[in-house]
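Now for our specimen.

. . .
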Amino acid sequence: MASLDMDSIIELFDGKLESVEGVYRLQRTLNKLKGDVSTRLVVHFHGGLVSKKSALEIVDSLYPVYHSAGAIPLFFVWQTGIWDVLKQDIQKIGSDDIFNQVLRRVARFVLAKRPSEMERAFNPNPVQFTVDMMDLNEKDAAQLAEFLDQAELQPKTVIRDFRGRQGGDGLKDSWGLTDEEEAAFRDDLLSDNNLVDAVYDTVVQLEGFDAPNTRTVRRLESPRPIMLSNHITGEMLATEKELVSDGNADTRAVSIASTAMMVIIRHATKVLRHVLARYRENRHHSLYTTIVEEILAQLYIDRIGGHFWKTMKEDTTDAFRAGGGGTIFLQHLQSLWNDETAHKPCVMLVGHSAGSIFIGSFLERADRELPAEAQFDVVLLAPAATFEFWHKQADIIKRRVRRFRLFALSDEAELGYWEVPLVYRGSLLYMVSSLFERTPSVPFDPSTCDVPILGMARYHTREQPYEASPFSNVITQLESFGKPIWVNRILPHLPAAAGIPGACSEAQTHGAFDDDPRTQESLKYLLSTDWQCS
């Protein structure tokens, strides 16, 4: 195995080279390209939200792959590591009693809605529950997700009715929420003693009441951290203190908790409305995952990292501003193109996850800096860039991309594992689509929490609601280079490219592409055999 050349690592912080040593490393690395027309430079951009330690482990894994293919590797290590912290916070949310009770109540209510106008007309009750709450409370997250998957397949659910008979405004009305149904849902929440106790305990912790009652003290001997968003806890404590200031601690706690309960009910009702709206517009991500997404967005948005994602994307842009590390690299690359005594550089760009956003910014700057004949080969591994972002690059891609390949999970695989164990079922890209890229909208717009991501198979189907531009235009352009490689969890390299060299992967999760042996074999084949420099 080739020993790691430290000149292959370029470290960035806030888009800039971390030290002047990075400039010297770039110079030494690019000087190696001058002597041999067949030598290729491969520039690798790892995914976002990973720690420096994880990024260097990616370097260790891929350096010998690229080196053995006869290429000169260059890794941009950009310090974005926050995912481990976010993951721990989301796991804590999964232990929160408010989260768990709202999840189960919303799921129970959705399953109780009748699919047809006729069935509702003959039943005077606003809602008829078909699932016992005790049964739901006894299920852990994995069992609950499996149960809801099976429930979606039952013929007498509104979900099944919608999927079986696409179209029709009357059918879409099944996904509405009448005043009577909303009142029934609110009453159902008020009757949930576990939820009432959880809200009361939260108020006691927030206010620091001194031993309000024996039952709460016993539950709070080892209190869990409060994970609710700051605006939620602020609303919960908005009771007029003077109205309860003369009472004892327990009376005050009960009074404030009553207001707090109304806050949770109001936001839980929004969760229910949003879940139904997403199903109505075909913007859902399975029943379990959709409900979890809407609860996180309504009650825990401060804890799930959307602002970190936006900051990370800004780093990719900053890298290609004046003085940015990416701009300095391109200036050195430009000097090679302008050197009449040197061979023109042959460059492959590889980007995993948010590294695809880095590549998009790279191509945009390269289009301004480099001669018209400069082109790149591009490989994207489970890209996290949005369709909108890639659509804006369409003309640049036409001019600057010579060959292209996309590896990503099939939708079955994408939604088939737990990115955050026993809390969020679905890949990181599903979280990006529904939470990190979400933009608040009033009134609620289901499309804002189903943002099309380039590396997700569901958005490449050309089916409603993803059939229009920019989806179709992006897909057509990318497929002109060759069909994406969609990796199935059961038969990893089938059916897209079974056994085809340079088109195989057995990655089982979003984060696995960098160190998956079959993916590495494909990268090596492209470098050494299929995509040779001319």
